[in-house]
Design goal:
2% strand; two-stranded antiparallel sheet; mainly alpha; globular; ABC transporter involved in vitamin B12 uptake, BtuC; 301 residues
Length: 301
């Protein structure tokens, strides 16, 4: 099959659109694991919750307040959903995960896996598993932009840009600022950091809340593109964990770069051999684990 430049670039751009979701979700996982040593399996459910906060805020908030014409618009949802889900994440860390901090990582994984199943089960009972459309996309993001080789939807381009801004801003704060150095030091030597008057437990709680907020932010971005359903998180989380493993568990930059690259690889694979596009990421994961078990950007412990 002869591949044209336009066809390849079109699929790579669409793959990049998926890649930014992999990047921002795996970033949240990497932040939580790298700084807190928690394998956060509930991350996919938090992503789904972010989408549902946006959907329900748009469709049901007005009637609940007695104002049928009132809606939580898209721009407000980008702020409200991360705040709501971030607060939920803080509650999960303070009431559950904090109790397991002294035990093996496996206990945290099992707890968050159980929470994910509970949240998904509750939403499955009340909402359509096949998904509901989120029709709150702003008019300014309607239409398409001519990239030369394709007409690319404005909304998808916005998702790519804002996701990159959030990802690299998070990396900069953690790796290049005093706050980030406090966070890293607080996980490596909490007693020493406490001696300087820094509230380490609060830092840990807020870090987990931020990771949860990142998942919710991605959920709001995804809502106008994909249907909002109770299983959208479980469908995404397995791929995202593969991205984290390939990039290196706990590596912030590894999560971002690997997510973007694997999204484009997935898109390119759809052109070359479409049936392999759903498994190519897992094939790469197996090869990376065999050659470099710590991941492409991971370090030996």
């Amino acid at each position: 099959m002869e591949l044209s430049f336009h066809t390849v670039m079109s699929q790579v751009m669409l793959g990049l659109n998926n890649g930014v979701f992999y990047a921002i979700l795996s970033l949240g996982l990497a932040v939580i694991f790298g700084l807190l040593n928690i394998v956060n399996f509930v991350h996919g459910a938090l992503y789904m919750l972010g989408a549902y906060v946006a959907l329900l805020g748009y469709t049901m908030l007005g009637p609940l307040l007695g104002k049928p014409d009132f809606h939580l618009n898209y721009w407000a949802a980008l702020v409200v959903a991360p705040l709501v889900v971030g607060l939920l994440g803080i509650g999960i860390e303070r009431t559950m995960l904090r109790r397991l901090r002294k035990f093996d990582h496996l206990y945290g994984l099992l707890l968050t896996f159980g929470l994910a199943l509970i949240i998904q089960g509750v939403f499955t009972n009340y909402f359509n598993v096949s998904g509901d459309a989120y029709d709150a996309k702003p008019e300014v993001l309607e239409g398409a932009v001519n990239l030369g080789f394709m007409l690319f939807p404005k909304y998808r381009l916005w998702v790519i840009v804002i996701s990159l801004v959030v990802c690299f801003s998070t990396w900069f704060v953690i790796e290049r600022t005093k706050l980030g150095s406090y966070l890293r030091a607080g996980t490596e030597n909490p007693e020493l950091v406490k001696a300087f008057g820094i509230n380490v437990p609060l830092m840990i709680t807020l870090t987990y809340g931020y990771g949860a907020a990142l998942a919710a932010f991605a959920g709001v971005l995804a809502a106008p593109i994909y249907s909002v359903s109770p299983v959208m998180g479980s469908e995404m989380i397995i791929t995202v964990f593969a991205v984290v493993v390939i990039g290196g568990m706990g590596s912030i930059m590894g999560a971002i770069i690997t997510g973007l690259l694997l999204g484009m690889v997935e898109g390119f694979t759809k052109v070359v051999y479409a049936p392999a596009s759903s498994t190519v990421i897992f094939l790469i994961m197996v090869l990376v684990l065999l050659i470099k078990p710590t991941g492409l950007f991971g370090k030996e412990s």
